[in-house]
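Subject: Sanity check before I submit

Could someone independently write out the structure tokens for this chain? I want to compare against mine line by line before I put it in a report. The sequence has 363 residues.
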Amino acid sequence: MNFQKIKDFVYQNIVYFALYNVLVLTVLILVVNFSDFSTGFGALQTVDYFMFDYTKLSYFGTRLFTVDIDFLSNFSLFREIFIPVFYLMIITAIVLYFISKKTEQRLLQFCMSIIFISNAIMAILLIFSIIGLFSTLGNRPIPADISISGIFLSLFFMFFKIGFTVSVCFIYLRESKKRFVLKALPEEQPEVLFLKDGKVEIPYQRATRGTRFLNVFIDAVIIVLVFSPILMRELKIFSRYIEDAMGENLGLYVVSLVTGILYYTIFEGFFRMTPAKFLTSTIVTGFSSAKTNFGQIIGRSFCRKIPFEAFSFFGEMGWHDQLPETTVARYETNKKYTSVITTVFIIAAIIILYVMLKNMFRF
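---
Independent answer below. Compare away.
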């Protein structure tokens, strides 16, 4: 089998996958808002399908076992903010993709990266749930009215659907990365930096401080609104143990430390980019080579957590760049629709601010 042909097919047709998700989400919004939506398969009862990948279960249980994989069903603020914002973004991404004749993909890549990480977390949690199910089935008698085949068929369908979504997003984002062309400086005029360890020559156009700040801000919003709540909600026992052992303030710091390291390691390890970097057309590189190794990515993730590390960027180079010998470079992209993407994010920011103020002051 020619896997490159499969990768090319996914890359060239990703917009139809995004369109399918939008159509499914639209149907589910109508169903959830205008009718009682609950279904059963055998002994498995499912409630509330409405969340990240739009079709996965947010709660399921049987008389034998109960597995809570509720993606923030009680966190109404999260839903109120994220759903309309993400819906707006993915529709805009699809429209821009068609209007630009496939040349404008920044917003589409951003949306696919969000879908990727949410489903990847879900896949891991589902594996643990299945392990728990096997353990439960081995220790309890099975009532006659329990359809074991129905349970396993439902779980198989869920795992297949989530696995398919993760695979499609992963292939698309990896193939996107391969097609980026770095903005090279003239060979005789590299950027020269005088660091503590000596002189460094960088042959690529580095991202400006303004772009780096924008990357940090957007990624921080995603970590706070999307990544951390999902991860810590599902690992609630761990997060409560940390808070009980260390106190609430220190516990929250440890949780933010773990989620931040995981977030950057996953995205920069697989793609050398985060969702924000997809938007700003920037990518992690080595000092003299376009590529980086996984050790450097781990180093970047941990160096970000050095106290006062953010202030190091007022110098020649920040510590999480300098210590692992990496930097963030710009690549060639179509800037024609930047104003449209900027407008979408301004609208998103207004929605987020309005909902937060509404919930804060109860108006």
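---
OP: Matches mine. For the report I'm noting this point. Residues 36-75 have pLDDT under 50 and may be disordered.
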